Amino acid sequence: MARRTRVLSAFALAAATALIPVQATAQATAQSAGPAAGPASAQRSAPPGGPCTAPVRPASQLAVEACDSPERIIEKAANIVPTRGQLAWQQREITAFTHFGMNTFTGREWGSGTEDEKLFAPGDIDVDQWMRAYRAAGAEQVMLTAKHHDGFVLYPSRYTDHSVALSPGSPDVVGAYVRAARRAGLKVGLYLSPSDGAELPHAWHARWVETIREKQAEGKPLSLPERVALEDGDRAPAGEGRFGNGSAVTERTIPTLVPGDDRADDVRRGRLPTFTVRADDYDAYYLNQVYELFTEYGPIEELWLDGANPWSGSGITQKYDVKQWFDTIKALSPDTVVFQGPQGVRWVGNENGIARGTEWSVTPHTTDPWTGLGGLPNDSTDPDIGSRDRILAPTTKYLQWYPAEADVSNRPGWFYHPEQQPKTPAQLMDLYEKSVGRNASLLLNVPPAPDGRMADADVASLTAFGKAVRTTYGTDVRKRGPGPYTFDRVAVREDIRRGQRVERFAVEARIGGAWQRIAEGTTIGHRRILPLPAPVTATAVRVKVLASRAAPHLGATTLHLGATALSPGATAPQEPPRSR
To answer: 130: how many CB neighbours lie within 10 A of its CB?
Structure first.
């Protein structure tokens, strides 16, 4: 094991100073890390001088070689740093998620893919009202479900009829959403489900529905996908049967131009890029939709690839060639972070919006992250995914910067249901402190209603929540006047441009002339918020790093006093069903 270092940093509250430079002991073993890593090709290449003798350079992804000693593996982990896109993403602490689509009008969470496109009939869609509500909550990025598992597409795609093109008014929801977000100064993410019920093979689907009917007649319980398929009876999937159809992998060109394609001249003249891939029917379909989104609605700061497959238990699966997806996305938009993608972001492990008490942005992988969705050496729900034991496990082949995104819905479901109520501001503040305050990003879903507007109750809750966050965390109490200072929360940071290194730390306050330990924690990362059991009045505060993988680089530590506007009797957050 690499030696654990002990360092001390102090903050003189009376002078309202920023962080004093951290001094490491002589036991510190790692070199200083540089700025955020560059292009993927540079990060994945072998260093000069041999894989186990060359200096360890900062990178967002490093291979673990068979000849690496435990000390060298820990040194590599200490020098894993975010890409430029990841660094910008982590600074956007709240993303507002928008689940809006066919399910909004059918009352479902998961659709069948056989629904009539005319059911999607929102009338007026007030996307500017959505953005006002999201900004009031403090969101800096928004993300729309451009296609959920039912395969219904919220823009007029050239590659499927199961889209808004056949809905009343043919509303381009993606286009309206992206334009409204940019007017509001918000970054944009899009969710494009890899699973696609509209593309289920028609003959397979017909046999499956008959099997479900037999199962129901026998009194056996039905799964959610089986129930919605049975509700839609003998309606065939709305697409062309490309998902899991066993089609041949052949050479294809992306974009695949269609008759009368308005992009033909731009492609011919080289104003639009083209890609040659080897793909089956569905992979080609998916890549063409990725291409449409990036070239027509970009820039896209985050692309969300959900790993759910509602039909896998019924015998239909689609093998994705995700490396081609990732390579295409990287070529179209190098700084886009991909949920479950390499040098992207990962699922926190639950849908409650709560990060681990020890949340690492540096994670070990058993396979090359460019070749699969996710790729952690254990299930992402595991309480430990980044400790020394995990990093030093013999199965670890790669290390990469892979920060956590904590997703949760403001209502029990992901789509709007009129009988459900939103979370209270107090519940949202608790989630903020347990996500953003634990080195994760909060992905907060707030679904619009069928009338195309955000419900008044959601708007009120979001507005009060955002005001409470700004009141509590907008200003360090030291800037409100001369000390001593009263506070009940301490926020500690690492300079993640140089990696995440702290494994254990403590916060001490000088109270009545004597130093007292008031809080302690394990990981820090982008930000660690430590709520105190009771307010503390002190003249000075210091942070002790008790264990670190290398010389730590701390950011500013700030002191805060909680807002009083939140309801003291709020109940615990509701846990939504797993239905993304």
So the answer is: 28
